[in-house]
Amino acid sequence: MNRRLLLAITIALAAAGCVRERAPAEDGAAPTGGEPPATAFRIRGAGERLRIAVVPKGTTHQFWQTIRAGAESAGREFNVEVLWNGPKSETDIQDQIDIINNFANQGVDGICLAATDRRSLVAPVEALMRRGIPVIVIDSGIDADVALSFIATDNVAAARQGAETLGRLLNGQGKVAVMPFLRGAGTSDEREQGCLAGLAAFPGITAFSTDHTNSDSAEAQKVMETLLAQHPDLAGVFACNEPNVVGVASVLKTRGLDGRVKVVGFDASPAEIDYLRAGVVQALVVQNPFRMGYEGVKQLAQTLRGGNPPPKRIDTGATIATRENMGDPEVRKLLFPLESR
User: Taking CA atoms, which of 27, 50, 161, 234 is between 20 and 30 Å from 37?
Assistant: First the structure.
């Protein structure tokens, strides 16, 4: 081979190696100079045990615990040690950023993240990718398309489906309050948007948004009490997450208004299922958090072992659960995801 050509190839390969082994940025600093985040990572051996961190928006609600169960199931299947930690509150953006940076400094192989804020987490994710730590975002997205994949419910479509269910329950008439939970969180914004769009298909329904509740059921109770005082003719509520459903339903049950004010909401905690069974809540938009956690860890593991990159978007689906269909096998599997695992 021509020596000059051989030298050129050697230099090119060395340059490629430098890109793949780029020195870590300090403390998750935001990228500079306008360079795109790295997309190539050190490939691990098939038998090498991986360490993948899963960082939810919070840790207390049943939804997050089901994500954890899915992640740990994938960990057992794909030889991954799953590290789990999240902020104490879903509103604590800086706490979540500190957690992912701490995991990065511990040398984890990848991070699976549900973002507390769609804008504030962009720079930290870019920094992780630049450090050679691949990130998959689950459940709650970020504004920039910088992660390997986004694995979640199509929240706009799912909320529209729930809103149409509520519209039919009300025979297309009445006043409906839409209760979002966290300003700036992708899931909250998208569900509010989808619900209002779905209700717009019913000319006889007047829909409006309430204050955000910060994913706190006690705060949702306060918002609901204010709603009933200001709108005694309220016909329905669309509650955009688990704490909102629980807060709304507890007020209606206490006041003896269950069934008179129709409630459709998101998620499927034990308390929500009890309210659904009792007729206080008429329908739940049930996601698949187990699959979110499972796919997040699975896709990272396969990528780190040299497999094909995951699709940029994986829709984990949503199903409307009612008191009438909650015994159906496929619906029951979503309502009780840990029952047979």
Answer: 50
